[in-house]
Amino acid sequence: MANHEDIFKKVISHAKEYGYIFQSSEIYDGLSAVYDYGQNGAELKKNIREYWWQAMVQLNDNIVGIDAAIFMHPTTWKASGHVDAFNDPLIDNKDSKKRYRADVLVEDHVAKIEAKIDKEVNKAAKRFGDAFDKEQFMSTNPRVVGYQEKANGILKRLGKSLENEDLADVKALIEELEIADPLSGSKNWTDVKQFNLMFGTKLGSTAESALDLYLRPETAQGIFVNFLNVQKTGRMKIPFGIAQTGKAFRNEIVARQFIFRMREFEQMEMQYFIKPGTQKEWYEAWKEKRMKWHLSLGMGEANYRFHDHEKLAHYADAAADIEFKFPFGFKELEGIHSRTDFDLANHEKYSGKKLQYFDPEENKSYVPYVLETSIGLDRMFLAVFSNSLQEEELENNTTRTVLKLPAVLAPTKAAILPLLKRDGLPEVAQKLVDDLKWDFNVAYDEKDAVGRRYRRQDANGTPFCVTVDHQTLEDETVTIRHRDTMEQQRVNMSEVKGIIAKEVAMKEWLKRI
Ligand code: GAP
To answer: pTM score, two decimals?
Structure first.
């Protein structure tokens, strides 16, 4: 089996080859950690966004959506804590001159210990067969228990040092664990320093009057500053939510791993405004709700897990990640944060405007608490895309590359293929395209042998191929080929729309949540 690095390289090259993702400004040799979405990528991204938006806004009568500007008054970021606390600890290697996030170096070290645990578990599972009890093994096997304690101890110490801003201890930890530069192997490190991740820019045409601005590092603040506008004009009653999707910008220290960590990316965030004191129950409820949303896409329960934060962001009293098994291991896909009244209370303080809710049941006003769900759209794209890309061994000793995208998210729902480029078959196929295009994105393809066209559509992620042949001219039937099973069925042309709709309709997928 190919190793993780090879699989990830294949993901990146496939995304380019099939018009999903290109390096930004490629003709000028690109821009680090900035990417463009191609003709298929833009569709897949739009479908993921829509799947999130419908689940949040359309299906919850107490959640509404907004679209706030990227530019915000600079005081916003003072109030939100980003000017003072939106930092990452960086460390440079003196020999290679490479820069790293100090916490990520330690976390990667822990991931290696966790990989050892996985190896022991897999070995034992093979040895014991059906009688294997994973939980019991994990809690009693001395080697596994030792690894687990070591990993927990390291993460605990890292969390504590970061919380106390004890950067000297973070460096001491890196030295004690003998962590080397992953590229050069050198252990010659500088001290750990804090680095603010916000991009600065200027608003205004003259040097004297220009206002220093930041590009928003999260979309959430556009929701907080509009809390009262939406609550009053929408006559919203607590609990209620405000959702938003949009671009965010972070000057990431290390922006590796393709679209996993970008400098310009898109977030899908929802702030749920609640009564103070109820945050624990809403935190649990939203963790469960969001996991169900993920699972509804059918990408495998084993690919997800929760990870509770040891180190809390400056605004949170509880936080967990939904992690996904990317080609490079389990990593954060979405965050669920209990943000208390941190943001609204600070915006009150800095703006001098009351940001309170009058609760008719309690007969008093208060600053609501907030429960946030925050997912990166690009990161979700990578989860879907990398999980869907598969190499399959076929019975005739050949392989096929297939992009098994959840049909609801696929950019093109069906390809219509005339078997031959003559005998009136293209005209019938084109008529079918003209009929289906009102409901779905469909493609027409008449080039090459039909087998090659099937493979092309498999690699493109198209769930259905519909072939028009000579029999079609006689009895108006066509074959529908299903991407995942490669099964073909002969149906009347009039049934095609219904068959596709049943498999791709967002409504049907959303019902699984
Ligand atoms: N408003 C809360 C917030 O922004 P976060 O954990 O910093 O929280 C939320 O970010 C999500 O945004 C992450 O779980 C991730 O999916 C996505 N994200 C964050 N930084 C990113 C980056 N540099 N590139 C791509 N996605 C990113």
So the answer is: 0.88
